[in-house]
Amino acid sequence: MTLVLDPAAQNLLFREARTANTFTGEPVTDEQVQAIYDLVKYGPTAFNQTPLRVVLVRSDEARERLVAHMSEGNQAKTGSAPLVAILAADNEFHEELPELLPHLPEAKDLFFSERPVRERNAGLNAALQAAYFIVGVRAAGLAAGPMTGFDAIGVQKEFLDDDHTPLMVVNIGKPGENAPFPRLPRLRYESVVTTV
């Protein structure tokens, strides 16, 4: 094998990592979330954009409001997870570019002055960051249960604003009993990779 990452880390992050559908009652601390962010913030994005925004749902009142917008099959999972994160794309991410791209501060207006261009870029790059976030949750020894089965307009109105587009809801915690569903098949290398 040609991977340099330790096999135990490979298993933790990918091979043995599974979407959790049940969780123990052990809380997820703010320190754990900070450590996850401090790791995954280094994941690459185009123009060093950082459009991902995270809303942590901790209170019972906020959780009830969120559960009301989840699809029926996701309500119980979201209602019982120790921590729930709403991952969203900030469509006004370009305002941060002069700080994040100091060698090209004009990129803010040169490339991202039009809202449709920002929305496309925010969606793509925040999705990259969301993937890093999920891997970071795993690196913290926790399980993630990412879901897109929710009323996006309802979640946006309830927790965000018109400048933020919800991408996914992620349940986070230590996996509980029968947490993962059986592993589903993956495509073979030859079905995915083409050399030209």
Content-based structural category:
alpha+beta
Number of helices: 9
Biggest β-sheet description: 4 strands, antiparallel
Rough shape?
globular
Mean pLDDT: 96
Radius of gyration: 18 Å
Which residues sit in consecutive blocks of at least 5 with pLDDT less than 50? none
Give helix % range.
40-55%
- What is the terminal-to-terminal distance? 24 Å
What strand order characterises the main sheet? 1-2-4-3
SSE order, one letter for each helix or strand: HHEHHEHHHEHEH
What is the chains' assembly state? single chain
Q: Could you tell me the number of beta strands?
A: 4
Strand-residue proportion: 5-15%
Q: What keyword list fits this structure?
A:
single chain; 196 residues; alpha+beta; four-stranded antiparallel β-sheet; 9 helices; 43% helix
How does this model look, in words?
It is a single chain. Strands 1-2-4-3 form a 4-stranded antiparallel beta sheet. It is built from 9 helices and 4 strands; from the N terminus they run H-H-E-H-H-E-H-H-H-E-H-E-H. The longest helix is centred in the middle third of the chain and has 25 residues.
